[in-house]
Amino acid sequence: MHRYRTHSCGALTVSEEGQIVRLSGWVHRKRDHGNLLFIDLRDNYGITQCVIETTSPHFKTAEAARNESVITITGHVVKRTQETINNKMATGKIEVVVDVLQLESQADTLPLQVNSDQEFPEDTRLRYRFLDLRREKMHSNIVLRSQIIASLRRRMIEQGFLEFQTPILTSSSPEGARDFLVPSRMHPGKFYALPQAPQQFKQLLMVSGFDKYFQIAPCFRDEDARADRSPGEFYQLDFEMSFVTQEDVFQAIEPVLHGVFSEFANARQVSPLPFRRFTYEEAMLRFGNDKPDIRNPILISDVTSVFDGSEFNAFAKAIEKGAHVRAIPAPNTESQPRSFFEKMNDWAISQGAPGLGYIIFAKEQAKGPIAKFLSSERLETLKKLSGCQQGDAVFFVCAPKATAEKLAGLARTRIGEELGLIDKNCFEFCWVVDFPMYEYNEDLKKIDFSHNPFSMPQGGLEALLNQDPLTIKAFQYDIVCNGVELSSGAIRNHLPEVMYKAFEIAGYGKEVVEQKFGGMLNAFKYGAPPHGGCAPGIDRIVMLLANEPNIREVVAFPMNQQAQDLLMQAPSEVTEKQIKELHIRTHIPAPKTKTTS
User: Fold this and answer.
1) Residue 176: what pLDDT?
2) Which of 22, 151, 454, 466 is most buried, with most CB under 10 Å away?
3) Choice between 395 and 513, residue whose per-residue pLDDT is larger
4) What is the Cα–Cα distance from 211 to 23, expressed in whole angstroms?
5) pTM attached to this predicted model
6) Residue 550 has pLDDT above 80, yes or no
């Protein structure tokens, strides 16, 4: 018999009745029933109820074993009586009567309970993450993560992709976020950078003649934490393909994502193939952002023309100064109490807006604080443009274009949630395409890349030479699920002359491009295939499928919001000897002092 176990704690059934078995695991829970002590023994696979009598020579050892102590038991399987069957457990029709019990490891008093759904402060959970991961929900989430990654890998290989690993120590490049830098001992004054993404390397693999690449890639960005973003490292399904159009990329990844989500959806619906597509301009107009949650049926519309020259001076005068008016319908709200509309107005004020005007298309006539300022013709036009029906209300945002889009998008989500319009039992995918190549940076008063600087501009070099940069679209695309951006991707710029010009428009001279991207640029001069790809985020995929609101719930050992690993106490100080070996000095800023007036 094996030293520790013949079966797992989730394996035994009535078919093993009468057998002598050995199990090892953690004491999940104990119950003293007088002359009997029941122990729920837990391992990675499940829980088995074990029973030890007070007459057993091992009873005192069992009694002294605290919760989460590790024990090994040898005993015989017995069938439970009908009234003691537990159908909630896979092993609920049997129990093991203990003949021998060995204490392998005694647990100290626990800082958090493993056998409970009780909430604990996040700092406690992260400091004792090894205990937190023993809890049923967290354990299931990490198992789910492993299964999802295995499914993604299998599906990519089945499509003919080859898995490669790209370097972790590389050079710094301007990719939109701060790099994590690593000082070089052998090259004083120089630094490696941890990759924000394998962007350049995967493109170099295409130039090297490999046709389809993928990897489950670790990426590192020194960013602030958010619910859907880790502050240090994250993983993505990174892939690239040669001799492809944008359509080819979509057809490659859609079945993978659809298949994985269908496999782990747990009875939730997954949007059918092909996924819906919206241009960036359409997404900003109809949904108010570029990562739309299309489970929400509300569509925003531009109704600037309705108020232009109208008697509603607050909007009419703002329109003269360049403002836009967005309409956000609220279906079937005629019977809503006045407090609903007041609540929406208060919410808008909390977002920094002056308020949220509205009109109700009631049976007898249009009502609301704005309705009296619009003629019947304007009201009819408003009804058509906004898609409203009798009994609906419509809210308004009036502001400069970017501000109007953002607030209307937030209002759309708020109204959808207030009215219960968002289906929580489905996964709705969509693509957002045709992103602008450039945007104007108001702070720096210059043109910047708006998305990925390595993207091919639509129209190629001719567009860069002859178009207003702010009108140039790129072959860039995002894939979104339930309002969560899973991935950005692009057809790449593989032509040196196009790359030089693209970066020149954004203010980077030829020498800067050659310094920062010399390896990739040099490779492009020796015959580069047209290529493109994408990189869906693993952590976000698991977060959605696990139905968790925070990415830290699906990562085994995450940092906290201050980018600290409380378990391993990182970041930490290092010795003076290590500092000297790296030829660097540390400069600790003085603590900020409060000033008194």
Assistant:
1) 64
2) 454
3) 395
4) 49
5) 0.92
6) yes
Cα separation, 408 vs 401, whole angstroms: 10
Pick from 109, 24, 1: which is nearest to 71 by CA?
24
Across the range 503-521, mean pLDDT stands at 90
Chain center to CA of 175: 19
- List all residues 6 or more positions away from 26 whose beta carbon is below 8 Å from its beta carbon: 41, 42, 43, 68, 69, 70, 114, 134
What are 207's two structure tokens?
């130039």
Contacts of 135 (CB under 8 A, 6+ apart): 114
Q: DSSP alpha helices (H): ranges in 159-225? A: 199-207
Partners of 217 in the beta sheet?
Answer: 236
Instruction: Tell me how far apart the terminal alpha carbons of the chain are, to the nearest angstrom.
Output: 78
Residues forming beta bridges with residue 388, ordered by sequence position: none
- Between helix 510-524 and helix 496-505 the angle, nearest 10°, is 160
Query: In terms of DSSP H, where are the helices of 359-481?
Result: 376-386, 401-418, 460-466
CA–CA gap between residue 42 and residue 392 (Å, rounded): 55
The helix/strand count (H/E) of the chain reads as 17, 24
**C-alpha–C-alpha distance, residues 90 and 46, integer Å:** 8
Write out pLDDT tens, residues 143-173: 999 999 999 999 999 999 999 999 999 988 7
- Residue 440: strand, helix, or coil: strand
Average pLDDT, the chain: 94
Whether a cis peptide bond, with omega within 30° of 0, leads into 571 is yes
Residue 498 tokens, joined = 């196009």
Task: Report DSSP state, residue 291.
Answer: S
**263 in Cβ contact with 147 (< 8 Å):** no
- Residue matched to tokens 């093993």: 16
- Please report which residue ranges of 196-279 form alpha helices under DSSP H: 199-207, 246-264
Question: Which segments within 198-250 are labelled E, that is strand?
Answer: 212-220, 233-242
